[in-house]
Write the structure tokens for this entry.
Amino acid sequence: MKILVIGAGGVGIGLAASVASQGAEVSIFAREKTAKAIRENGIRRCGLFTNYSIDKSEIDVYEDYRTIESNLFDYVFITSKTTANEEIASKLNENRDILRQNAKIIIFQNGFGNDDAYLKYFPKDKVFSARVITGFTRPERHISEVTVYTEPILLGSLQHENPNCLREIADMITASGINCELTHEVDRYLWAKMLYNCSLNPLGAILNVNYGKLTENEFSKDIMNRIINEIFEVIKASGYSTLWNTPNEYMDVFYSKLVPDTYNHYSSTHQDIQKKIKTEIDSLNGKVIQLGEENNVDVTTNKIIYNLIKSIESDF
């Protein structure tokens, strides 16, 4: 089995090491500095679960699609930031000869609806989505550290395609020590993650605080509650569902369990803003706004949060 991983951050390096440890032939598409580090050192997965070191001789690294031979890959893992999806999808289409006939694309990203960019070029039975709430960081360019684990990685289709064709990928990731399962309801789990991320990520970035601090005053809690209520309305109007039937059911879990368990965490949106790089807000609250407007749902609070993040980004 040959797998191309596009995006060499913590998730990409971590998943690449996971499947390589189980015998997959892995290639990584990376930028210059990261590509150099991998060519010199190979890749490593450390932290929770089994640690793996994959020798540099076992990993191919690419910086240009034109240097990849034809008919090579069975799977493509998309592990980049969502801001790169349009470019990656276009490049894969332009260079689709690198893919084997039955190749599948699996999107391991934050947000909802990230398959849209790829469905412009590839049929829906070739494009799948993953729910990832395992925490990966990248302490060095060639190293991924697994820092948090709460539930399995889930693989499925937002287009209601049968995910059984991904069984070998799920089994490989599980055998590497990180549980991975197939689901016919990946949309429900992705919306659960959206509720969490859309409520916490941008507001924590704007106020420059961790998740826990957001729950400690009535003003930030009121904003988060409004965001949650709007998202539930969007889910219902869009014909989707999630793991809770009402906003109040979710808020009970959110404030009693989910936020306390990640009290000290600073969001990826916060980290991006500190680095002065574009955030993934379009795949988070931006997606809520898009679906809200399509279905005549009031998403005023999400719009305000979105506009504030975009205002901050305008100086980058």
The first strand starts at residue 2 and ends at 6. The mean pLDDT is 97. The longest helix spans residues 186-207. The CA atoms of residues 237 and 295 lie 6 Å apart.
